[in-house]
Structures are given as structure tokens and as C-alpha cells.
Design goal:
Blueprint: E1 6-15, H1 19-31, E2 37-50, E3 53-66
Antiparallel strand pairs: 1-3, 2-3
């Protein structure tokens, strides 16, 4: 197994539908500009309440990606 060095960034994904969609939205958007994403960790889940109902889900993720080889 190769040894890797990971860089860690924090993202906040949102969705009006679900926590899962909020996670996917964050990963999909980050993948457009960050190469080699390997893992994520959900650090926090929160949301917005509108008129007594869930209006929006917000998920804070720690995302790890490998650095390019030299």
C-alpha cells in the first residue's frame, strides 16, 4: 500500500430535501475544482426552520484528498 499525505478542507453543503443530498451537493461541487477527494466526515448537521417545518438542511463536512505526487 502506498503512503499518502492528505489535505483536509471543511465544506458546508445545503439541500432543501435531505441530509444525504446536502452531503452529495458539497462533494459534487468540490469535485469540480479539487482533485483526488478520498473521504469525508460529517462534523455537524443543522438546519433552518420555516413556518414550523424543516426548510433547509446544512451539513458541515471535513473532506480529505490526497496531494499530487511530485
Amino acid at each position: 500500500m502506498a503512503e499518502h499525505v492528505y489535505k483536509l478542507v471543511e465544506l458546508v453543503g445545503t439541500s432543501g430535501t435531505s441530509v444525504s443530498d446536502a452531503i452529495q451537493n458539497a462533494i459534487t461541487r468540490a469535485s469540480a475544482t479539487v482533485r483526488n477527494i478520498r473521504w469525508f466526515e460529517v462534523a455537524q448537521v443543522r438546519g433552518e426552520v420555516r413556518d414550523g417545518k424543516v426548510g433547509c438542511y446544512q451539513v458541515t463536512l471535513k473532506v480529505g484528498f490526497t496531494l499530487d505526487e511530485r
